[in-house]
């Protein structure tokens, strides 16, 4: 039962996980920097070096928060299955961070492997999901086995990659994740699917602690391990809550960005594609083109990284609010 006691416990778990994350990240960042796991912040003057693979901190804070919650409350068994799936995505992203797996839209052998392997990560969730989706004008559509072996794994994988591809600026992927998860939380409470909150709240606390270090000017980057685990959580909550279309609308700016990048790369196959823009002497972003959503607005107006990130937050908030109003 989702009573006052459960609400208080979940809120406490979120706050405790946040504090755990804040504590974890300081020594973690020192260790990552010492071991040379750093990258250049391309949208700062001087291109300062910043520790990468902040997803490690998200994963550890989440696991610790979940253990804390399980010490005071019987949490649903699905929480452990979800955690297993998340860890698979985390380690896959970590391997990509360390050794690299494929390249963008080249469709090499390693790139195909990068697409196919995560599809299997969702299979432990098959027993816990429905097989129908509500579609406007068509009503509830039953997909049966097609949902379990195709739609389920593809949806989670797509969510993970959408967040990964939207990780351009300081705090962008983590802030976007928290906005979408907050609107998913509202819908879960409304529909009575509150069991999902027992693993969602600790994860949001962990992501919030990461954002505290990742927000402009970033003290850490998420790495693929961070972006993949955040995107995977969005996809998992969507399929368990039967909120696929709702989540799709929430992620509309990320989808538009993906489609723009895909068209750009595929229409100019074989040509060199710039991964980063530059900054002028005033700190404003100087994008190489307007072929991605995150470069579109700095190409029109003089915007620095912080303002561009806030604008991306606004777009995601509006799309998420639209999903809330429509559904």
**Gross morphology:** globular
How many separate helices? 12
Total beta-strand segments: 6
Estimate what percentage of residues fall within beta strands. Answer: 5-15%
What is the SS-derived class? mainly alpha
In what order do the strands lie side by side in the largest sheet?
1-2
What is the percent of helical residues? 55-70%
> What string gives the helices and strands in order?
HEEHHHEEHHHHHHEEHH
Number of domains: 1
Largest sheet: 2 strands, antiparallel
**Low-pLDDT residue spans:** none
Average pLDDT value? Answer: 92
What is the terminal-to-terminal distance? 24 Å
Structure description:
The protein has helices at 4-34, 55-72, 78-99, 109-116, 145-165, 172-191, 197-214, 223-240, 244-250, 252-267, 293-300, 305-326; strands spanning 38-40, 49-51, 132-135, 139-142, 278-279, 285-286. By secondary structure, the protein is mainly alpha-helical. It has one domain (4-244). Strand 1 and strand 2 form a beta hairpin. Helix 2 packs antiparallel against helix 3 (78-99), helix 6 (172-191) packs parallel to helix 8 (223-240) and helix 8 (223-240) crosses helix 9.
